[in-house]
Amino acid sequence: MYASREDIGYDFGDDSKVRSKPIKPNPNIDGGWAWMIVLSSFLVHILIMGSQMALGILNMEWLEEFNQSRGLTAWVSSLSMGITLIVGPFIGLFISMCGCRTTAVIGGILNALGWILSAYASNVHYLFLTFGVTAGIGSGMVYLPAVVMVGQYFQKRRALAQGLSTTGTGFGAFLMTALLKYLCTEFGWRNAMFIQGAISLNLCVCGALMRPLSPKDLCEKYVVRSNSEENRAKVLSHSTETIKSNGVLGEEPEKKEEAANEEVLGSVHHIETGGKSGSERSMYGLRLFKTVSQLTVTVRKGFALWYSSYFGAASLFTNRVFVAFIIWALFAYSSFVIPFIHLPEIVKQYNLSRQDNVFPLTSIIAIVHIFGKVILGIISDLPCISTWNVFLMANFTLVTCILTLPLMQTYAGLAVVCALIGFSSGYFSLMPVVTEDLVGTKHLANAYGIIICANGISALFGPPFAGWIYDITQKYDFSFYIAGLLYMVGIIFLLIQPCIQKKQPREKSTEEAQV
After folding, report:
1. What is the reported pLDDT for 264?
2. What is the DSSP string of 340-389?
3. Of 44, 94, 325, 333, whose CB is crowded by the most CB atoms within 10 A?
4. Residue 409 and residue 290: Cα distance in Å, rounded?
5. Which run of H or E residues covers position 232?
């Protein structure tokens, strides 16, 4: 799990002391402040993911304003969505050095700045930079900490907690669609983006709520996961390794380097306390040197953790099922994003604008999406149900809906398919849980960063591809068919790899029996 000096601290005792003391359950794990973390993550999903799901409203305004092709204009929305997710692995570096709270606050400021600057756009290419890149990076800096913090604070009810927090996407899509429609009608799209930028500053408040867990809390969380004393010992050693990997206790090569750094910092502290007779100027220089030295140590340890997770000997890419999960993510997210961006245009083509104005199809997806996340989260937490199987069934339902959507040309038919899309896409709440089951809590933040990066690539190319297909064929049908088929390829990868994993141990045991 990502952590920094702010997140972890330095108050550690020996393992023997920890084991000898009776460990009391922490009220903040699965309760207490954990629910404030869920609230913070919920609001982040409303303000970031909900706003992005409502970009179809602004996409139509940009088409009229700049008179560009659908393929080119769709790049604005897809850049914002894609970059939000693509920067996940790189945001992990910030989290390693600064912690989730600081990263989220900086991201909130950057996201608001992107919205406000976009209000002054003179062409589509200007929006690429301000809204696509600036607001996208800011969104990514808030989104990943919001997901990771829920995983840190919950153990027994992880799927439910993730489900509740990510329902903000559905609420946000419903609320932001109505809000952006109203603001664009009353004030124009430029003022609407300016107002939305001011609203986005609330992301800084959400970031401030992300209070880091102490190392004692982390140890207790791992102990709660185990019932027997033997497992407790293993868990405590695992949590110690987590602390080591997060830059508090380094690996063997890092210990020498840390000792040297501590010597320098200690000598500076000695001069500070013993040299009161010196000038204030030299004292200021020494304090500055001490601060820079501490910052350098933090940056180097954070980078070492980040680098080893992706490129080290224990790289996540050595897990074959996780690699299949990445391939699935590369195709999956575009199938969910394309309807949100292009449905308003499809409704206009089918002359269904009157019915859609009463109850927009994107709002139907958003509302049912809320129930889908909560219900799928509750089902997955049942002891007799496999989270992996629920995840796969939801994926099969969603890909079927994507393939059948072009066949519906009435409002009622489209509404039914959109409702099914909303419910089945509730599997997004299970993605952090599935990821943690594949790689473990220690690597959750890094692994989930890779998954949302793959989702970001999918979101980046999906809507422009659909717009490009429309420019050629003057129909959106082929866009949905191709996206659905690619999605099916990703699901097949998920099905193949677990079967291979199961067969390998059996083959080995057969060979041993023959010997």
Report:
1. 46
2. HHHHHHHHHHTT-HHHHHHS-HHHHHHHHHHHHHHHHHHHHHSTTS-HHH
3. 44
4. 68
5. helix 229-245
Q: How high is the pLDDT of residue 198?
A: 94
Q: What is the mean pLDDT of residues 483-508?
A: 68
The tokens 């696509």 sit on which residue? 132
pTM assigned to the model: 0.65
Mean per-residue pLDDT for 201-207? 93
Q: How far apart are CA 119 and CA 123, in angstroms?
A: 11
From CA 1, how far away is CA 417, in angstroms rounded?
Answer: 38
H helices, E strands: number in the chain? 26, 0
Structure confidence by residue, pLDDT tens digits, 215-239? 555 555 544 444 433 443 343 344 3
| Per-residue 3-state assignment (H helix, E strand, C coil) for 28-59 | CCCCCCHHHHHHHHHHHHHHHHHHHHCHHHHH
Q: Each residue of 63-95: pLDDT tens digit? A: 888 888 888 888 898 888 888 888 877 887 778
Of 248 and 115, the structure prediction assigns the larger pLDDT to 115
Indicate if the pLDDT at residue 38 is higher than 70.
yes
Count, residues in the chain: 515
Q: What is the DSSP letter of 188?
A: -
Q: Return d(Cα 56, Cα 341) in angstroms, integer.
A: 4
Cα distances (Å, whole numbers) of residue 219 to 25, 61, 148, 215, 236: 10, 52, 17, 6, 6
Domains and CATH numbers, the chain: 28-213 (1.20.1250.20), 305-504 (1.20.1250.20)
Q: What is the CA radius of gyration of the chain?
A: 25
